[in-house]
């Protein structure tokens, strides 16, 4: 199999998995947890000691949903993956770092994996199966 085809296929699978996970996390923050009321996302950010918890909660949910969709589509992919890496690093610091390693304890396992996936896309790009590639033909 052609090395380039294999590389692009793996990048596509990585983008799809990462994007769906990010969208699901953002959706959960807004629609399942809600943004207010005792157990809402803003309250979780406030309890964790995050600065400007309301702004940070909405920014995080927005980046997760929009950035995840952009990663899936391969549109402005490196910027979207970079933004996802940044919000995940903030989440890593405020919510996961003190809980040990394993995800079952809300530890750093999943955010660490997400950050590494995001950085892989930042370094290697979206691949040929992306809107970035399709639009580059018109530039």
TrEMBL record:
Q: Does the keyword Cell membrane apply?
A: yes
Chief location of this protein? membrane
* Coiled coil region boundaries: none
- Locations listed in the record: Cell membrane
Keywords in alphabetical order: Cell membrane, Membrane, Transmembrane, Transmembrane helix
Q: How does the entry describe its membrane topology? A: Multi-pass membrane protein
Q: Which parts pass through the membrane? A: 55-76, 83-104, 110-131
Say if the entry is tagged with keyword Transmembrane.
yes
Report any Pfam family annotated for this entry.
Answer: DoxX
Q: What protein family is recorded?
A: Belongs to the DoxX family.
Q: What is this protein's name?
A: DoxX family protein
